[in-house]
Amino acid sequence: MYTETHLDLGRTFAVRLMQHLVVPTFVLDATRRVVIWNRACERLTGVGAPEVLGTRDHWRAFYDTPRYCLADTLILGRTEELTRLYDSHTVPSDNTLGLSAENWCVMPRAAKRLYLAIDAGPIFSEDGTLIAVVETLRDMTEQKLAQMALHSLANRDGLTGLANRRAFDTAIVADCQQAQRDTTALSVLLADVDHFKAYNDTHGHQKGDECLRTVAQAIEAQIFRQGDLAARYGGEEFAILLPNVDLAGALQVAERVRAAVEALHLPHGGRPDGGPVTLSIGAASGVPWDGPDILIATADEALYTAKRAGRNRVVGNAVTRPTLVEELYEA
């Protein structure tokens, strides 16, 4: 039979065990105050236990502005905050289970940015009352950086550094779905280097590659908004995705891109008119009710119109939803 003395000894042993764990660990009581901050946690964060014990200031070890840590969300029952707070996470089926999450942490005292895998597990009394939450941390920075590098290699064009065709195809499907849900316009620009075959014939393929890299840099420099995407579509053709941008806005971006490439004054040498390297650009915009194919086809048609009209110019077309009569006729 266990006595109160045995239970006290057990608690003392558990605390000492946590203190000496090689896994960074801290414990919050039911009021979210720090009751254990082990030595591995001190080494990871640069924050000593005396600074945080008895306080709710544990967030200062990981972030530069106040926010909940994973243990806080479990104690408060605020699991709806997880998507906002963490890059990835699990959601428990009930409050007796723990949480797992991953996130970049700025680590102000340690002066380094780390990607941490975090687990938070509740501790209950015999009557089912929550008495504490244990949070453990694992430094996953090297693995995350390696994963990001592999993802970049898989989605970047090796020659120009822009997104590749695969990344563009994935992005336009997602952007179309979002535009349909929000009933907002999505714009696509297709740009083609004018007389590029003649440029290669004149200067050789190595110079041709240098030309494409330079043009790609000029295009990327004109894409300012987060969420926009510039990609190498294939050969000497480039594509730009502009979510929530109507045709007027798309034409402005297209003209800015066209002018930026012309301003490079790259000698062409193979153009019949003796001019520099330029772009022809086709723009398409509208709510993509029928998915990406109609947007791309419309932009491609506008691009060829620009080429037939003399190149080094922008042409745009709107994409509209078919009327009920047109849909019935097509059916």
TrEMBL record:
EC number(s) on file: 2.7.7.65
Molecular-function GO terms, alphabetical: diguanylate cyclase activity
Entry's Gene Ontology BP terms: cell adhesion involved in single-species biofilm formation; negative regulation of bacterial-type flagellum-dependent cell motility; regulation of DNA-templated transcription
Reactions the enzyme catalyzes: 2 GTP = 3',3'-c-di-GMP + 2 diphosphate
Domain GGDEF: 184-319
Pfam family, one: PAS
Cellular component per GO, a single term: plasma membrane
Domain named PAC: residues: 99-152
Principal EC category: transferase
Domain PAS intervals: 10-54
Gene3D superfamilies, per database record: 3.30.70.270, PAS domain
PROSITE patterns (UniProt xref): GGDEF, PAC, PAS
PANTHER family with a match to the protein in the record: DIGUANYLATE CYCLASE DGCM-RELATED, REGULATORY COMPONENTS OF SENSORY TRANSDUCTION SYSTEM
The protein's name: diguanylate cyclase
Organism field: Pararhodospirillum photometricum DSM 122
Taxonomic classification: Bacteria, Pseudomonadati, Pseudomonadota, Alphaproteobacteria, Rhodospirillales
